[in-house]
Design a protein that fits this description.
about 10% strand; Rossmann fold; disordered C terminus; about 575 residues
């Protein structure tokens, strides 16, 4: 069931109910003590005005007043501490849930959202929610207690003054509500545009070399300026409306103060109250309006927080992947037979990519998948790993449907080396052992040697303890060698190589090919290749075109047929000769 932002927020706050209860009690106690002070000051004034000042009583009153102020400050500190603890705990839980959600939604969903926008929801939007809570939670609690308390004290002093204050109160509320209602959509637009800007900057930061290479710096700056200008306009309008709330409510609240003074003066002239009572009433009238001013002053942060909360909640409301079956099949022993049965898939329903695909692969076979760009080669692998689910049909491993397996169990059967190498921030050792954190030093070194990575690792400043990651200074080829070593260490029963040696020089590629041949013995292997010279020794070559397997067989068989593979192969051969 989907939750809106506010109901979800209350759900998070339940975990901090103890802090919130203490905060509420402290707020009430602190406000009660602070409201008691004006009454005591009024009594002290009356002691002086009456002409026979009781200095002993006045000193006692001053001492009590000092104690009241100290206790009120202590309760205010406790309230602030508890609200801060509750808010930070809530924001921490919010970030955790967004990041966990990232691992629960289908990859189809992730691919459809700019990654920078997701980053913005985890960081900037969650932070905005926290800022709004910290600014508003304490104000709301103390404000509510102050409004209620001041009215009680006003009624005990002068019924007429209390009525005058109450009559003018709705005017302040209506003014604030009118302005905030008009500004809410502006804050939503501001939050969305901030996410768009973050996504744009994240995308350009990852492709800066290409932008420079193709001379697109000005175009990138122009696109950035366009988004930034939209953010400036909606941000300016949102802040303008937000800034109007405080001065307008202050103006109305000053009218309340003036009304309290006039009515109190008239009552005093009639003998209905003393000078000290007038002083207390004016102080209470000022304290009564103060919460409206304080709340309106943080309205901008509250509006921003609500807009950010909506974005975070929208992401958390995305549907999760379908759950794993309760009676999941045991995959502890796998031979490696793979079968596609009338498989159909499309990234969008309007444009199907794969239709009625049938494929039967025997355990231990080396299967090469070739074809032009967009033919569906990598899609076939993604379907096999359940990164995407079929629209129709079935895929079986050893006669068991992959949809009867837990996703984690299924993916543990495969070792995968992609064209784009990925390394985490950490040591070389940690990166190689990413799939097997419990691997021994000897196993890690053996995997690195098998991948021909050991020699360059030993030349690094700290060898296997060298910290690498983004900006590590490793070449693309070295990074890919580490990815290959990672798969060799995992030692899975099935292998997927998606242009795994594309960033490696020819000499090293020959060594890696020998290592792969050794690793692929007895294992079912799928090799996605663009360079057809690398798949001559495959047991079977699948030639794909527009999502269909148009030809399959061994290298020589396909060449002799003179079909699509023959055209692909000799076009590459001719191109290679032309380049040389």
């Amino acid at each position: 069931m989907k939750k809106n932002g506010v109901s979800r927020l209350f759900g998070y706050l339940k975990a901090s109910r103890a802090h919130l209860i203490v905060a509420c009690v402290s707020a009430v106690a602190g406000v009660a003590l602070s409201l008691l002070a004006p009454r005591m000051v009024g009594s002290g004034i009356d002691l002086i005005v009456e002409g026979h000042t009781d200095f002993a009583a006045l000193l006692r009153m001053i001492g009590l007043l000092l104690a009241v102020y100290l206790l009120s400050a202590a309760f205010q500190w406790v309230m602030s501490y508890c609200t801060n603890a509750a808010c930070y705990r809530t924001v921490n839980a919010l970030r955790d849930d967004v990041f966990r959600k990232l691992h629960k939604v289908p990859l189809r969903t992730i691919d459809g959202v700019p990654h920078g926008d997701i980053v913005a929801r985890v960081t900037a939007d969650a932070e905005a929610v926290g800022d709004g809570l910290l600014q508003g939670a304490g104000q709301l609690m103390t404000g509510a207690a102050t409004i209620l308390g001041t009215m009680i004290f006003l009624f005990t002093i002068s019924f007429q003054v209390a009525i005058a204050v109450l009559v003018l109160t709705p005017l302040s509320v209506l003014v604030a509500k009118r302005i905030t209602g008009r500004s809410h959509h502006l804050f939503r637009e501001q939050s969305d545009t901030q996410g768009e800007l973050t996504a744009f900057v994240s995308e350009r930061a990852g492709s800066q070399k290409l932008a420079i290479l193709f001379g697109q710096e000005r175009a990138a700056v122009g696109a950035f300026d366009e988004i930034n200008e939209r953010l400036r306009k909606c941000g300016y309008q949102a802040q303008l409306y937000g800034a109007l709330v405080n001065p307008t409510t202050r103006f109305v609240n000053h009218l309340v103060y003036v009304a309290a003074g006039i009515v109190g003066g008239l009552v005093a002239l009639g003998g209905g109250m003393s000078v000290g009572d007038i002083s207390a009433c004016l102080t209470y009238a000022n304290q009564y309006t103060k919460p409206f001013n304080e709340i309106s002053s943080v309205m901008t942060q509250l509006q921003t927080a609500l807009a950010a909360l909506r974005r975070v909640s929208d992401f958390l409301n995305l549907p999760d992947e379908s759950p794993d079956p309760a009676d999941a099949a045991d995959v502890s022993k796998v031979r490696g037979d793979v079968k596609f049965e009338n498989a159909a898939f499309g990234y969008t329903k309007e444009r199907p990519l794969i239709e009625n695909m049938c494929l039967d692969v025997r355990a231990g076979q080396k299967i090469a998948i070739v074809g032009p760009t967009g033919a569906g080669k990598t899609t076939l692998v993604n379907l096999l790993m359940r990164f995407y689910d079929l629209d129709a049909g079935n895929i079986q491993i050893d006669g068991t449907s992959i949809y009867r397996m837990r996703r984690g169990d299924l993916r543990s059967l495969f070792g995968m080396v992609l064209q784009d190498s990925w390394l985490r921030q950490g040591t070389v050792r940690e990166n190689i052992a990413y799939g097997r954190p419990d691997a021994t030093e000897e196993e890690i070194v053996a995997a690195a040697k098998a991948a021909h990575a050991h020699s360059f690792i030993k030349r690094l400043p700290q060898g296997y303890d060298t910290v690498i990651g983004a900006g590590s200074g490793l070449s693309q080829g070295q990074m890919q060698l580490l990815c290959i070593a990672r798969v060799m260490l995992a030692d899975p029963p099935l292998l997927i190589l998606d242009e795994a040696t594309s960033a490696i020089d020819t000499r090293t590629e020959l060594k890696i090919a020998a290592a792969f041949d050794e690793m692929m013995k007895g294992r079912t292997s799928f090799i996605v290749a663009h360079r057809l010279s690398t798949v001559r020794e495959a047991d079977r070559i699948l030639v794909m075109r527009d999502g269909h397997i148009v030809e399959q067989g061994k290298h020589q068989e396909l060449l002799q047929k003179g079909g699509f593979y023959h055209i692909l192969y000799y076009s590459q051969f001719a191109l290679s000769r032309a380049e040389n």
